[in-house]
Design goal:
Length: 293
């Protein structure tokens, strides 16, 4: 795989199209030292960006929670996102818009730093290996927990909140797992390192944690809508790890993960059942409406 800093093409950078390898920031950037950076992740399907406006809204919400004012309007970001996807000729890929504080000041205070914005996009397939996605992935349980909601700006998609996700993912992979389940500060099931989680019970109902200390994913909400359209009951509630043996199915949802079945969480095993397969197929029809037609 070509390293990301060695790729070709353009990146939208502060309202200019910059050569990919020339899109740089200074090593004294506040975003690098103090994690004052917010970002989004979007998918492109058959040349169309899925739920662009919702992702842009969340980017601005994240910036506001981080006391950052993005120096462009939502419409400008939407149009620039479409522009860079077209320039890069991405048909089925990923888009990463992000905003960060610059290098004008060094220290915790950053009142006079510039807010920089960039948008990069590239062709990208499955987040997990296709075979693993077919058979279901295996999850470890992380020793790191989602912090209490009064300790962090948890509704923001901010760089600093992913530090424990990286640690959890690395530890899981070293043990031979694909992913890690993260619990919240109270010890309830929360999410994986980069995706929301759902469980299916013996009666065909779905259960998913209440997003009160982690992101209420855009894909999560889409899947809930799809499930309800199929008359599948969705219970949003607190879920204890001790309940895992009671469930027969499990899957992750996220922009990158899409709908990814889970085969096991530690010793708890789940089936890649027809319900999960049907939801995944319906999700693909939702994100690729032209093909579905």
């Amino acid at each position: 795989m070509i390293p990301f800093d060695k790729r070709d093409g353009k990146i939208w950078y502060n309202n200019e199209l910059v050569e990919w390898q020339d899109a740089k920031l200074h090593v004294i950037s506040h975003g690098l030292h103090y994690a004052s950076l917010v970002f989004e992740g979007l998918r492109v399907y058959d040349g169309q960006i899925f739920k662009l406006e919702e992702h842009t809204d969340r980017l601005f919400q994240s910036a506001e929670l981080m006391d950052m004012k993005i120096p462009y309007s939502k419409d400008e970001i939407n149009q620039s996102t479409k522009k860079i996807v077209s320039v890069q000729n991405v048909l089925n890929g990923y888009v990463r818009p992000f905003a960060w504080r610059g290098s004008e000041m060094m220290g915790v205070s950053a009142q006079n730093t510039r807010i920089n914005v960039a948008i990069a996009t590239w062709e990208w397939g499955d987040y997990f290996d296709p075979k693993l996605k077919l058979d279901g992935i295996r999850l470890d349980v992380s020793r790191w927990k989602r912090p209490a909601p009064d300790t962090i700006p948890w509704k923001s998609k901010a760089a600093g909140l992913y530090m424990i996700c990286t640690l959890s993912k690395h530890e899981a992979e070293k043990k031979g797992y694909s992913e890690a389940l993260m619990l919240d500060h109270e010890g309830n099931v929360a999410e994986s390192t980069s995706a929301n989680i759902f469980f299916k019970d013996k009666d065909g109902n779905l259960h998913t944690p209440i997003p009160d200390s982690f992101l209420d994913g855009i894909t999560r909400r889409t899947v809930i809508d799809i499930a309800k359209s199929k008359n599948i009951k969705v219970h949003e509630r607190k879920i204890l790890p001790s309940e895992l043996p009671n469930f027969v199915g499990c899957f992750l949802t996220g922009t990158a993960a899409e709908i990814t079945p889970v085969a096991s969480i530690l010793e708890n095993k789940f089936q890649v059942c027809n319900t999960i397969i049907d939801l995944s197929e319906s999700y693909q029809k939702t994100v690729r409406p032209k093909k579905a037609a």
